[in-house]
Every structure is written in structure tokens, then in C-alpha cells.
Specification:
The protein has 277 residues and is α+β, with helices and mostly antiparallel strands. The chain has helices spanning 12-17, 19-35, 42-55, 123-149, 155-167, 263-266; strands spanning 59-60, 72-76, 79-81, 95-104, 107-116, 171-172, 178-180, 187-191, 208-211, 214-216, 222-224, 231-233, 239-241, 244-249, 252-255. The radius of gyration is 17 Å and the shape is globular.
Amino acid sequence: MSLRKPGIYKTPDELRLMVRPGVLTAEALDAVCAAIRPGVTTGELDAVAEGVIRAGGGVPNFMLVPGYRHTICASVNDEVVHGIPGDRVLQPGDVVSIDCGAQVEGWNGDSARTVVLDDPERPELVAERRLLAEVTEESLWRGIAALAEARHLNEIGAAVEEHLESRGEYGIVEDYVGHGIGRSMHEDPPVYNYRVSGRGPAVRPGLVVAIEPMVTLGSADTVTLDDDWTVATVDGSAAAHWEHSVAVHAGGIWVTTAHDGGAAGLAPLGVRPVAIG
């Protein structure tokens, strides 16, 4: 997906306008995650998300991407991102990553969560996959916490990678990264989930980014499937995907796609988000 190239820093008024689409995105994901269970199709989950966003006065911003006609991406098991919802029936033990976004009054939110379905017949598989999802979410919060103190954007990727390395042998997908967000869902600058050379843009008030680690149980190598959208692991290993949109403002940071601004996720890391005034 191409990136729009405006100035990357928003005004205080623009930051305030980004709160509602973030909250609406969170509400849609709440509803979808509550509906995930064996026997449900990914198409049914898509309808749930669309209903919440439209009822809340928003537009599903994934539908604004040329060629994409759905509200969510639903990526299952070895699918990393961009899975197309349809008639696939969820099974016990599945890893389900839901990526979703809402646009309100021309401003965007973007977030993703991973859910692992229970399977009493395969408890070890479920435990391994739930740990993957847990570690990936932890790495997201490490990246957000790093943003709160960072001078330059690429400190985020170093924090994400450092945490993943501390938790075991996981694959960090490098083919896809986070991004700026604002008037378009995908904007500059790129937000890496791993260490890179160079410091990246300065972190200062007005910066809004979507941080989204994508992590696998095996190789990080990916392939795009025949539908030209779904990205899967080459080796068939399971993947997890977590994402939040985060605004930097004069008072601190605020996770626009978390109902509490990120307070619960950041508290164990000693970071207190501050609401956008």
C-alpha cells in the first residue's frame, strides 16, 4: 500500500480529531473479538466490524484502499497480515489476527489484535500459540513505551526487537512495517519493528504512528498468496499481529486505539499516558 507524503506532524487540533476514529476502531475490535469462536466465518466477523463502525458514524477505512472491499483483514494461522474475510470457518486452536480501521471526519484509526481459540484436544499447540500472541503484544507495548521517551523514531524498533529476543526464538517479519497515520490510514514515516541503521524522524508533538509488530513461531520469510493480498509465512509457521495508533503531543503520548489511552498496557512499564487536551 502506498504512503501519502504530507508533513508528518499534526497540529493540536488535528490530534484531537484523531481520538474518535481511534476509539471507534477499538469498539469494532471489541465486538469482533467477542464474536470469535469455532464455527464462525471470517466473513461474519467482517460484518460485525462494519456494523459497529457505521453505527458509530464512521467509515471502514480498509474499504478506501483501492481494490479492497472489506472492513477487516482476518489472518488465520500461517497468515501474517491482509487475510481476506470470507467463508472460512474458524476451527479450535486457530490463531486469528484481526486488523481493522475506522475513518471519522477524514481522520483515521488503525489497530490489530490476535486471538487464539481453545482446543481441549491440543493443549500444547494452544499454549504455544497463546505465548506467541502474548509475546507479540508485549513487544508492541515495549515499542509504545519507547516512543514515550524516544528522541528519534527508530528507537521503537530496537525496543521491539530487544524484547522479542529476550523471550525466545521468534521470527520478526521485516517485509511489512508500521506507518504514520492521519488523513490517510497509511502515511510516512515507516515504523520498523526491528533495529535499523539511522535514527529516523525526530519524535516531537504532532507525530502519530501505527506500531505493529508481526511475529512468527518460525521463519520470518513471507509470501503473498494467489489472491494478491494475503501474506503468509513461507514455512507454514503460525503468526501473530498486534497494532495500536499512538499520538505524541505536548503533554506526552496517548494510544488513540485504546479506550484508556494505553494506561493498562503501559503501567507495568512505568509510563503514564496523558489525554490529548
